[in-house]
Amino acid sequence: MFSPQGPTARELAVQALSSVERGYDLLAPKFDHTPFRTPDVVLDATARELAALGPFEAGLDLCCGTGAGLGVLRAAGARRVVGVDRSAGMLAVAAEADERGKANGADGPGAADGADRRGGAELVRADVRALPFRSAFDLAVSFGAFGHFLAGDRRALFAAAREALRPGGLLAFPVAAPPRVGSRGYWLTWGFDAAMRVRNALWRPPFVMYYRTFPLSVARAELAEAGFAVGTVPLPLPELGERPDGTPRCRLVLARRP
Q1: DSSP class of residue 129?
Q2: What is the pLDDT of residues 127-162, one digit of tens each?
Q3: 33 in Cβ contact with 39 (< 8 Å)
Q4: TM segments (predicted)?
Q5: pTM for the whole thing?
Q6: Which listed residue, 28, 77, 81, 159, has the most CB atoms within 10 A of its CB?
Q7: Domain range spanning residue 130?
């Protein structure tokens, strides 16, 4: 499915009937061949904006998955790069990709030319709601992960991220504009979320993955509740284009630990 190297329909069904952690362990070897991986255009656009705000010395990727976002941290100047995820399978794929990058002298999408790779990335298996770090980073990022957390869990995640950042540290992540009501994208995401809610009502363990629970207004409110100072106007990512009304399709949320 998706590509010749991607998962089959049967493999996706098995994943969907597993827990989030087990599901991603199963999907990990083929994850980068699915649409679930954050597109390079999003990574590159984020990297350019953060590089202009940096340099940052130590960077943390929350729910790093197979490591697609690690190059964004390096592009922002981070010499220490750490990725955290609960899935051992995803971390194993990230470690392999990072080793290949070291051998080839390249960081992949979002990486700055000539980025310093000494030491490679540190990959930590941990629950991002209870991070094993205190005031250790000046930049944290996350890509495509917040749909795996219900509201209460996101609050714990943001509180943990705040503690992991140094005073003045920055948490950054892209948020896409919601699809226009009645559009194909609107009905696709609505239908997916409805199916997932039915699945979770009938089957255990739950698999939390929703697309319509985290608009920009909710993100800003939850960040403020966690003690972040949130910019009044999130940065537009012009590479992602505009909607018919002229507003950006995607913005970069920037939240600082005071």
Answers
A1: G
A2: 999 999 999 999 999 998 998 999 889 999 999 999
A3: no
A4: none
A5: 0.88
A6: 81
A7: 38-175+215-256
